[in-house]
Design a protein that fits this description.
Elements lengths: L6 H5 L7 H15 L9 H15 L2 H10 L21 H9 L17 E7 L1 H6 L1 E12 L15 E2 L8 E8 L2 E8 L8 E2 L12 E12 L8 E4 L15 E7 L6 E3 L2 E9 H6 L1 E5 L6 E5 L8 E4 L15 E8 L6 H14 L8 H12 L2
Parallel strand pairs: 1-9, 11-15
Antiparallel strand pairs: 2-7, 3-6, 4-5, 8-9, 10-11, 12-13, 14-15
Helix pairs in contact: 2-3, 8-9
């Protein structure tokens, strides 16, 4: 198996990158490699790699753990030898050989939590801003109803494997230069389950689990952003041997809006205005996610000026207030003009001259009168 690439390298950011830099890098790469947009070979794998890197580095706890241990599991200990291997040679086998005594092994018949699932959901810009209730359908493994998860035909027994005594493992003795070593492996007769099923269930063929399409109601929280995920407890794969079900993690993809641009909880809007509106001032209606609001444009406003509408952005998904909307005004240069408009602009240009310096108040008043035709 190929080793995983460094998460910082995957996103193209430094190890000191801020949360915002990580988020921006992910947003760019996720759109570049999203399977719905990129049909090139390997795009889906790169998309999964980018998503995995973002999910780790965007979480402070996971990032701190990754910075310390890298891709290794810190819970394994001894560089990954702590748990041994079901069909290989493990650290516990060495310990048992040299110091005697048995090692603790997981009971194959003990209840175990089911696997977690991940679901990618694409939502509209406004759905991300305000949230919504929806329903999704996904395939997942569930306990077979026919045999109640035993894997056996109804009314037939499930026997304990006589080869491993129900432990699911057998011991293999090997002669080495250091002496005899005992290696524990999964029992080949019961495939490590500790059970023998003489007559298998005709629905699940002995697995005790079947794949079904399940409809699940989901509440999308207001303020969710690109790449963020929602955990739905107990909606993953069914548990094993009566264990609890896993969880479902929904990763959100947010479509772009035709006018608004979102940065965190703030929204940006580029608003085109005419030169007279900027020069003379105006009161206009500006679109926001909650509806139009009035905005006063002072006389002499320069193109590129940023007007801040407090509280008109996106509600923070964690409940930390609401962002702002930034309105950046841009002057529109007309492509076609009437002869009257051209005449007025020539007159204005003759008064203005070629200097971009600030005008005196008296000259500015004269320019306003010229544009108005007074």
């Amino acid at each position: 198996m190929m080793s995983k690439r460094d998460y910082y390298e995957v996103l193209g950011v430094s190890k000191t990158a801020s949360k915002e830099e990580i988020r921006k890098a992910y947003r760019k790469l996720s759109k570049q490699y999203h399977p719905d947009l990129n049909k090139e070979a390997g795009a889906e794998e790169k998309f999964k790699e980018v998503t995995e890197a973002f999910e780790t580095l965007s979480d402070e706890t996971k990032r701190a753990q990754y910075d310390q241990f890298g891709h290794a599991d810190p819970n394994q200990g001894f560089g990954g030898f702590g748990g041994g291997s079901a069909d290989g040679f493990g650290f516990e086998d060495i310990f048992s050989t040299f110091f005697g005594g048995g090692s603790r092994r997981r009971d194959p018949n003990a209840p175990r939590k089911g696997d977690d699932l991940q679901y990618s959901m694409t939502i509209d810009f406004m759905e991300a801003v305000f949230g919504k209730e929806t329903e999704i359908e996904l395939p997942r493994e569930e306990t077979c109803d026919t045999c109640d998860g035993t894997g056996a035909k109804k009314g037939t027994p499930v026997n304990t494997c006589s080869h491993c005594g129900g432990s699911g493992q057998i011991s293999v003795t090997q002669n080495t230069p250091l002496g005899q070593m005992v290696n524990r492996r999964a029992c080949p007769h019961c495939q490590g389950t500790g059970k023998i099923i003489p007559e298998k269930c005709g629905t699940c063929y002995g697995s005790g689990r079947v794949t079904k399409r399940k409809k699940i109601k989901v509440t999308i929280p207001a303020g969710v952003d690109e790449g963020q995920q929602l955990r739905v407890s107990g909606q993953g794969e069914a548990g094993i041997n009566g264990g609890p079900a896993g969880d479902l993690y929904i990763v959100f993809r947010v479509k772009d809006h035709d006018r608004f641009i979102r940065e965190g909880d703030d929204i940006y809007l580029e608003l085109p205005l005419t030169f007279p509106q900027l020069a003379l001032g105006d009161e206009i209606e500006v679109p926001t996610v909650t509806g139009n609001v009035k905005l006063k444009i002072p006389a002499g406003t320069q193109t590129g000026t940023n007007f801040r509408l407090r509280g008109k952005g996106v509600k923070n998904v964690h409940g930390h207030g609401t962002g702002d909307q930034h309105v950046i005004v841009k002057v529109i240069t007309p492509k076609k003009m009437t002869e009257k408009q051209k005449e007025l602009l020539r007159e204005f240009a003759s008064i203005e001259g070629n200097s971009p310096d600030e005008y005196s108040s008296s000259l500015f008043d004269k320019i306003k009168r010229t544009i108005k035709g007074d």
